[in-house]
Amino acid sequence: MNWINNVVRPKIRSLWSAKRDVPENLWVKCPETGEMVFHRDLEANQWVIPNSGYHMRMPAEARLKMLFDDGIYDAIQTPSVLQDPLKFRDEKRYVDRLRDSRAKTGHDDAVIVGAGRIETQPLVAAVQDFDFMGGSLGMAAGEAIVRGMEEAVSRKAPFVMFTASGGARMQEGILSLMQMPRTTVAVEMLRAAGLPYIVVLTNPTLGGVTASYAMLGDIHIAEPGALIGFAGPRVIEQTIREKLPEGFQRAEYLFDHGMVDMVVHRKELRSTIARLVRLLLPATDAPSQAVALR
């Protein structure tokens, strides 16, 4: 038996030909500086590039875990809706797009809702996941937001909305646009109950989302560098045929022009929201804060 030909060489060939099972996206590139960051280091830094401070998009579940005490929260079940009421098809069938997005994100739709506590204060929060069809606002997302606000009223808890969306979902047509007035009515329900509504604008927040519940908060917080507006800057430039100012529609520009109340780094976001919740709660729920503000 020639063990070199029959044993050693086949082993060597198998080692060379075997495909390495290497996970994708081990390294993440900063869109601003090109810096490469190991994905675990980025996750440990709350998806903020360490040197440039660029705020990457954050997974929806990670948002909720970051917000609530000890990362513990109850997932709120949201109502189900018709999947494809218009039988819409473009390059792909709408039902196929939904299936792909659900497989990619693990969510039923673009908004998830959770309830828990922040520095012992009860809180309900909803997060839009941009990875689910660009965080677009459709019937399911609208139902989730309304359900979250109803839960906040039921628990007598403040409501926090993390927005991230390209706008309304075109595959649902007028049914998508109807979510704008529906969520607006839900915001009024919060106000009638005397409960704080805090909006955190993340990158990007555009279209019908900006034209409805994203700009109806008692307090508007923006993450650094977030793109916020109705139409995108490129569309505006093409329409008016003029060059827009530097940083137009970015969080810092909107803060300078009074469109948002504060721009807060992600690492300071939780403590900022907790402080606002204490300040905005009705005096009957937080007498010590009422005395301190006199």
Describe this structure in words.
The protein is α/β, with parallel strands linked by helices and 294 residues long. It has two domains: 18-56, no CATH class; 58-292, 2-enoyl-CoA Hydratase, Chain A, domain 1. 38% of the residues lie in helices and 16% in strands. It is built from twelve helices and nine strands. It has helices at residues 3-17, 39-44, 60-67, 94-105, 139-155, 173-177, 179-192, 207-210, 233-240, 251-256, 269-280, 287-292; strands at residues 27-29, 36-38, 73-75, 111-118, 121-128, 159-165, 197-205, 219-222, 262-263. A seven-stranded mixed beta sheet has the order 3-4-5-6-7-8-9, with helices on both faces. A two-stranded antiparallel ribbon has the order 1-2. Helix 8 (207-210) links the parallel strand 7 (197-205) and strand 8. Helix 5 runs parallel beside helix 7. The longest helix is centred in the middle third of the chain and has 17 residues, at 139-155. It is globular. The termini are far apart.
Task: Describe the oligomeric state of these chains in a short phrase.
Answer: single chain
CATH topology of the largest domain, by name, is 2-enoyl-CoA Hydratase, Chain A, domain 1
Instruction: Give the radius of gyration.
Output: 23 Å
Shape label: globular
Per DSSP, the total helix count is 12
* Structural domain tally: 2
CATH H level, superfamily name of the largest domain: 2-enoyl-CoA Hydratase, Chain A, domain 1
First CA to last CA: what distance? 95 Å
Poorly predicted regions are 284-294
Largest sheet: 7 strands, mixed
Q: What's the CATH first level of the largest domain?
A: Alpha Beta
